[in-house]
Amino acid sequence: MQRNCTLSVRVWRGKSEGAFQRFEVPRHPSQTVLDVVTYIQRALDPTLAYRFACRVGMCGSCAMTVNGVARWTCRTHVDKAIKNKNEITIGPLRNLPVIRDLVTDMSGFFDKWARAHGRFQGAQTKRDDFARVPPASPGRQLADAGIECIGCGVCYSACDVVSWNPDYLGPAALNRAWTLVKDERDAAGVERLRAVAGDAGCHSCHTHMSCTENCPKQISPTAAIAGLKRAVAAAAMRGQL
Ligand code: SF4
Ligand code: SF4
Ligand code: FES
Fold first, then answer.
1. What is the C-alpha to C-alpha distance for residues 72 and 218, in angstroms, rounded to an integer?
2. Using CA atoms, how far apart are residues 169 and 106, in angstroms rounded to an integer?
3. Which helix (H) or strand (E) holds 62?
């Protein structure tokens, strides 16, 4: 990166109807896409709406579309995103309603976690001893593989099936359901499999892998969904669904 150079930034303004607005932003070493958006809002246009909280890849609130790819912007370096050009295009996440500028309405995304029965359902009481699940047990390893999801919506934004079928539960909700199916302490069992088995559930996944390729936490919702498909089929064969 040359000293004193600027970056030409196109930023989405408006709701679903709107246009890109261009800004010139000074470059810095190790600059992230979130740094760029923050500079625009603080120094050039305080009306720009965007969302972030932790700035360290934990909260999942800063996801946006960067040069056509869904990314967590606080951990995405400009150098990596622009690939030797000196311009960048930043928009809201795809597949979600735009509230304003770079802010999307995540309520439908999280409603689908609830529809997929994405909450732990225990069978123990507070008087019972702690459940001990050995870290090396197969179920624990499968559940742990997907447990680090930060709910950023990147996978959901990258999924074409969500675009074609807005009712589809999507990769994040299904990944969450799979971590609970494999959690041996959880008691929802067939109830959760029913929740993910319908037309909008795991069988709608076309195994495109876009979710897995884009997940910033290296989670594989595709593998989780494949596991759900097997579990749903096995339950159906047993006559439980
Ligand atoms: S699975 Fe990955 S991309 Fe999808 S919401 Fe979770 S952390 Fe984000
Ligand atoms: S693997 Fe399935 S959930 Fe993931 S992006 Fe493709 S269709 Fe969507
Ligand atoms: S601001 Fe929290 S993950 Fe980016």
1. 12
2. 13
3. none
Helix (H) or strand (E) holding 71: strand 69-72
Check if 200 has its Cβ closer than 6 Å to any atom of ligand 2.
no
What are the tens digits of pLDDT across the range 11-32?
999 999 999 999 999 999 999 9
Structural Rg of the chain based on CA atoms: 20
Q: What does residue 90 show for φ and ψ, rounded to 5 degrees?
A: -125, 125
pLDDT tens digits, one per residue of 209-218: 999 999 999 9
pLDDT tens profile 33-80: 999 999 999 999 999 999 999 999 999 999 999 999 999 999 999 999
Q: What is the pTM assigned to this prediction? A: 0.95
Torsion sign across C-alpha atoms 121, 180, 240, 138:
negative
Does residue 107 line the site of ligand 2, with CB under 6 A?
A: no
DSSP state of 46: T
Q: Which two three-digit tokens encode residue 39? A: 């500079």
Cα–ligand 1 centroid distance for 1 (angstroms): 31
